[in-house]
Structure formats: C-alpha cells, structure tokens
Amino acid sequence: MTPAARSQAAIDILDQVVDAARGGGAAADTLVARYFASRRYAGAKDRRAVRDLVYAAIRRAGELPENGRAALVGLAREDDALAATFDGSAHGPASLDPAEPAAAAGVMPSWLSAALIASDVPVSAQQALVARAPLDIRVNRLRTDVASIRAEIGGEAVAGLPDALRLPNGTNVEPLAGRVEVQDAGSQIVSLAARAEPGQNIIDLCAGGGGKTLALAAAMDNRGELIASDVDRARLSRLAPRAEKAGVTIARPLLLDAGREAAALAPFAGAADTVLVDAPCSGTGTWRRNPEARWRLTPQRLERFAQQQRHVLELAAPLVRPGGALVYIVCSLLDAEGAAQVDAFLATSPGWRAEPLDLPAGRPRGSGLRLDPAHDGTDGFFVARLIRLC
Length: 390
Hints:
Mean pLDDT: 97
Shape: globular
Number of strands: 13
Low-confidence stretches: none
CATH topology of the largest domain: Rossmann fold
C-alpha cells in the first residue's frame, strides 16, 4: 500500500468507528480486524501503519468527530508528512481543503472532564487516560515461572507483583498461551485484594471471559472451589478453553439468567470466603486500550452502570459467609462508580465494614484504593474490601 492508500484505509476504518460510537456497534480493534480480514493483500507493515493512524486520530480527538475524514484531517493539520498523503490519487484521500471540517484536539468530552475533576482527577492527569498502554502479562504459576518466561522473551519486573512482566509493545505472546495471560498490572494488583488462598471457596460474580478467575485459580494453587458466573453467555464461554490451556481445573462456569440471578445463586448463600465483584462500569480507567469508548459514554449510560453496580452488590452480599469478604472492583476513576457506590452500600448495610488495603500501588479513596494511569502507570481502578461481620 502507498502512504496515500494507508491514509484512505484509516479514514474508512475511522468512519466505521465513528458510526459504531454513535450506534453502539463494535469496538475499534474489532473493526480494524474485520477491515483487514477482507483485504489479505495488505502486509503486516501496512496493517500496523494503518492501525497506528487510526488510534492516533482517535486519541487526539476528545469529542466524537463528524466522520472519519475529519478525524484524520485533524491529525494531518499537525503532521506535514501525513498531510502530503491527501494527494487525490486513485487510492488515496482527496486533497485537503483549508475550509473543510477537522476534528478538534482534546482529551475527552467536556462533561466527562468535569465529572473526573469532581472525582479529584485533575486536568493535568487526564491526558494519561488516553496515552498508549504498556503490554503487561501475568505469568501462570500453574504452568511455569517468571524466570523461565523472562529467559524466553525478556521483559521487566513490575514492583510488588511477583508474577508480572512488562513487555515491549508489539511482543508476540500468542506462543505462550496458557503459560501467560495478557493482564494489565493494575488488574493484577486489584485482584490481590481478594487474598485468595488454597482451599478457599470463592465466587467471581462478574467473571466475563475469566481473566481474574484464572488469576484467582493460580493464587489458590488449583485447590478449593471457584465459581465463575456471568449473564453474558458469549464472554463466559471463553473461560473453558482458557482454563484448559492454563491448567486450571477448579473454575466452574455458572451462566446466570439476567433478572433471575438470585435464584441461581441461592445454593451458595452464606458459603463464600470471598465474593469478587468486578462490576460492569464505564471503563474510564481503560481508555488507554479502548480510547473510542469515551465517545460512547453519556450521562444516561453512566447512570445505568451505577444501577447495575448497585444490583450486583445486592446479589453478592448474601453469598459471603460471616467473616468473609466482598471485594468490589471497577475499572473507573469516577466516584459515582467507585467510592460513592461503596459508601452507599455501607450506609445501608450495618453488618459490613471496610477493611484497609495494602496493595503495591494506588492511593486511598473513600473506603478503598484508587489506581490511575498518571500516578501508578497502570489502568485506572477503584477497589474496596468489605468484611461481613460475624
């Protein structure tokens, strides 16, 4: 592909990303993959160059652009080499018109910036939310050890995480499937709040594809009972093959029927040493990986997430045994989803107390800890550990 053709490809993909953001369609990484699946002629360098253009344009535009061309034109206004690819050639974009619309540079929609400021995430820290994320992995101690993986592919240790390595972006970890899992250091850190041990009875209530489930199983040394439940059949179905590759035998998937979760969970009432709630949320802490997600969020959607979070807390509480723990996690920096949710739960649940956390990163926030990219170099999370009184 010529440089001009790469630019046009980026515009085509950005058009799809903008449409998906308006209509709740697929994520940008999925759209990029679909685009090239039908264009086998594009080589690895072309794919990488186009992908880089797409994500550079997404990260630069805080507000949802008018269309894909406006997104890339905004980038081209700041890059003469890119602007030169708008040459009107057969496979390239039409020449730039000084009067045509261009996406304005910004970090995020103004209402979101204000919400983060209200949650003590200042403007100076907000740019880090859309910076490119590092590649972190968790070494699966059931299959191997950090020294072996490091000898094979290198990587840097992550302070406080004996099973973690940080690799150069672009490192191919597919041949290591089962021995390692791609998992942000922040996600590994908040998982430590579960204090999982061999022989325990743990429920991962919002397990999704099982990333934290597998981490819990490794910490349990494959001994005990581990229930991985979710209402999303497609996401939960990914757990079984991942668990098989990882050598995890204690994880038991439990598909829940939305609206009828309590009935399916009733047999586990009062039995869990720990219930981990990785609640559905806005994902403001993971924009480094999905920067277009900030274009999808609205105040109304944020309130729906808050309602879901209250719901899963209500489901989780009865499952914890007296003296056991409920670990609440959201990959968000907004207090409405983190500290305020936990405060509201504690205010209406006299049989519970928050337990202080001592984790390798994060700062106190409300009754828990908050990690953010600017301060901790990880994805953003809020985590709290709540104890059911005996």
